[in-house]
Write a structure and sequence with these properties.
By secondary structure, this protein is mainly beta. Strands 1-2 form a two-stranded antiparallel ribbon. Strand 1 and strand 2 form a beta hairpin.
């Protein structure tokens, strides 16, 4: 169990854009979240992730765990992160990841385990 577990969703605000009477896709305000533990895990049919504010994130463990159809992720601010355990583990369709600042990280167990299609991983600090 992580220190933030069970507390993260209380800091999330969900809004939807409305244009010409049509409701658009929801926007999730994650700017105050410190833990992204299991945030997108087992994301069935998840191929792309729009920008997610991870600027206060410290725990990125299992964030995309077993998102088997995920192809790419946007640039993420991981500069405060310390735990990256299994962050992308099981993302079998993932082709590339952006540059990640993992300079404060101390746990990287299975970060890219079972990423069978992964072609590019930027140099990690």
């Amino acid at each position: 169990m992580t220190p933030d577990e069970g507390k993260t969703l209380s800091k999330v605000t969900v809004t939807a854009s409305v244009v010409d009477g049509e409701v658009g896709k929801p926007y999730i305000d994650t700017s105050k979240m410190t833990s992204f533990y299991y945030f997108f895990n087992w994301g069935a049919n998840l191929e792309l992730v729009d920008n997610v504010d991870t600027s206060n994130g410290k725990n990125f463990s299992y964030m995309f765990y077993n998102c088997k159809t995920l192809i790419t992720v946007p640039q993420l601010d991981t500069s405060k992160g310390s735990d990256f355990t299994s962050m992308f583990s099981g993302c079998r369709a993932l082709i590339t990841v952006p540059q990640l600042d993992i300079s404060r990280g101390n746990i990287f167990t299975s970060m890219f385990y079972n990423c069978e299609a992964l072609i590019t991983v930027p140099q990690l600090d």
